[in-house]
């Protein structure tokens, strides 16, 4: 029996449009000879729908669309569709009013409904807010093949793989005990660096442990801050990969279940990304493209400072939307170096995007004049420096408002972590493209891009003709070699206020991702005063991050949906580790 895997990119809430995508995949699957079609978790409404699920009309619309889809599907094709199902006993049991469900559609109607058993409530997930867990193993039989059904988190509880059990049950083990021939998992699993490879190793462990062929189908595309990588795949009972779909793109692949061997046979096998930098690049390009299109923007604007962060964001935007849809704005101040302007213009030329220069010197003078009496007798400092950033933010917002562009902010994760950014200035924007990319990784991606310039034309079809002769390097070398600087005062560089980025990023990785204490970070070789200072900066900057635009998530610990820190808090992470030392006020601690 041939089984088709539909790796779909739904738009949250576009129930009719998502149904059409399922129908189109079904028609393609029939043409390829498939008998069964698999679609991702909540494929009818898109994942995650969040509080749309609290709207009864939203749930009703899904039910009606599911009924119509069942009638429209090819009659000889069975289709598993991700949807929600009302919990008709919730008023009796006190449980949640919905189930996260999979519907088996065939011959014009819904044949069976399966309920997700494990509901994640960590990181970006909050499914216990909406759903009641299913209590029974899910399975069905088609053409004498006994198939077990699991939904996303249902496969993430193998106690042998993890060394512990997070939930009371393991749905994969329950299905193996039932003696199913094949297990399918329908997922909407968000991307983070290295996660595609991790999923394959996790399922390989389960396939080998239970001698069970498995098919994994994942959503693709970006919804708000979450990026879904796709990379659907199938394993035989020995844990060998029999097929793999493309990463960061819609796809439909087929795999054959051999009724005699009761196992899957080798099919198409798309290669994985060559490096983490390539993987992150593809994720960010997809994230920008989908965020813009799903929010109904066709063009973007960003500030070009001549620095590495804005250079990378401009390149990502160009690959995502095409050079004709990107506007780069240079806003030099009297403190801007000559090379900042020339580097930004060189970048714009390499990318082929439109650039405009809007000097801000006169605007700075206007602010100085208005504040002269109030600021009289004070020294030039952070307030005056940040006015420059806020002038630039106002200009960019004015352009975005005037022409209906999406403003992309260009701050990286290192800056967001310690507050080296200005509210209502460089933090302005509708999407923070690299807010989850540390500064050291920004450089790595730029170097990778320079060695792979064709990456500019792989994510957007129009680019294949736009860049028939790509430059030998996309990011000018001077941008990559000069010292990073906000250029808010003469001779300023980032390291006036921050540790070296190699040091800062390692401390942030240990503190934010690995949850190490200050003492552990010091034991790893970092200076106590630097560790103390960085941790305090992270805590002080929480109010800034709460007001930041949504940032594309590419790590397992991003400043977004899954980051739930209080703003007003007396907890200091360095307590009881060693004596905290006061730090002097700096740009980092400013607004």
Protein model, in words:
The protein has 591 residues and is α/β, with parallel strands linked by helices. The protein folds into two domains: 2-272, 4-Layer Sandwich (Nitrilase/N-carbamoyl-D-aminoacid amidohydrolase); 278-494 and 549-556, Rossmann fold. The protein is built from 19 helices and 20 strands. It has helices at residues 15-31, 56-72, 90-93, 159-162, 171-178, 195-210, 276-294, 308-321, 338-351, 361-375, 382-403, 413-418, 439-451, 463-466, 477-481, 501-513, 518-523, 528-540, 542-546; strands spanning 2-7, 36-38, 78-86, 98-106, 109-115, 138-142, 145-151, 182-187, 214-218, 220-223, 226-229, 233-235, 241-244, 251-258, 263-264, 300-303, 326-330, 354-357, 406-409, 431-432. The strands form four sheets. A seven-stranded mixed β-sheet has the order 5-4-3-2-1-14-15. Strands 6-7-8-9-12-13 form a six-stranded mixed β-sheet, covered by helices on one side. Helix 7 (276-294) crosses helix 8 (308-321) and helix 8 (308-321) crosses helix 13.
Quick summary:
The chain is of the alpha/beta class and 591 residues long. The protein has 19 helices and 20 strands.
